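In response to reviewer comment 3 from the previous cycle, which asked for concrete evidence that the modeling workflow produces usable outputs, we include below a single protein chain processed end to end. The sequence was submitted unchanged, and the resulting structure tokens are shown without manual editing.
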Amino acid sequence: MSSVLLGDAHGISVVDFKPFLDGSAKQDVASAILDSFKRVGFVYLINHGIPEDKIKGMFEWSKRFFDQPMEVKQLAPHPPSGTHHRGYSAPGREKVVQHLYDDKDIKDSRAKAPDVKESFECGWEENVGSPNIWLPDGVLPGFKEACMDFYSTCHETELEILRAITVGLGISEDYLVKYHDGHENQMRLLHYPSVPAEQLKDDKIVRIGAHSDFGSITLLLQDDIGGLEIEDPNTPGEFNSAPPVEGALIVNAADLMMRWSNDVIRSTVHRVRAPLNAKTVNGMVPERYSIPYFCSPERTAVVECLPGTYTADKPPKYEPISALEYIMRRLASNY
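The workflow returned the following structure tokens.
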């Protein structure tokens, strides 16, 4: 397995994904990914299959979009409903919350301050329940097409990672793939404006508060600024940097995957703060761009603990639940 392990970044394994994609060392790669998911819930993948030119191009489109005047970006407004994550959200619009299931929890658990970021979100173009919200025709031509092309490319990579997870667990390679048609995924373009370093350090403002994702897995591409931190699995409340690794795709398991795996796989709380050793200019932390791609099963899927993750001595911890019921609870809590 050592040939596929390229090192680690603050305890998160850096894995060469190419031997899985070309079939030369599928089991070794799958085992390395699963081991990192078990330990910390995150893994870095090198040679992940998303072309570098497409990544560069999507970041360029993201910057072009966020450079538009506010009145232009607001032409594709995020709807008031928190269950319809599409369109543009201005800084301070969203408050990330954690594990909410009733009104009291929502009141008590909301972030103290809104997250200082702006975002644009899109999904499958033919999703009738959550239709995409684009800028009007003629405004930033080519943006919609670039987003949809990149969305499809990320979906292809998602399926390969899901295959690796099941190979690692010793079950059918397509066991998870059949639940993930890409129709319920969400791509988010994120821009974190430059902010005062002291306010960020003192938690007077927040980039993204501590949270875990709620779907199956999340793919994350980020620039070289940094700031992502994950909770130490052995010391709750203590966070470690997950620094940018050149050429890497960061993948983290989300809450539904943890439930699906009978807690064999971790869904780890993470946040975005000031990057370590950030070079400030006049006391300001530099702006940051990232592209998370949130993967969820089709909403009719019934999620029950995967074969091989339980035994007679270690029975399933969770009752079956529909993906729709679980995800709608979590989506509604963020707005």
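The CA atoms of residues 304 and 320 lie 5 Å apart. We consider this sufficient to address the reviewer's concern, and the full set will be provided in the supplementary archive.
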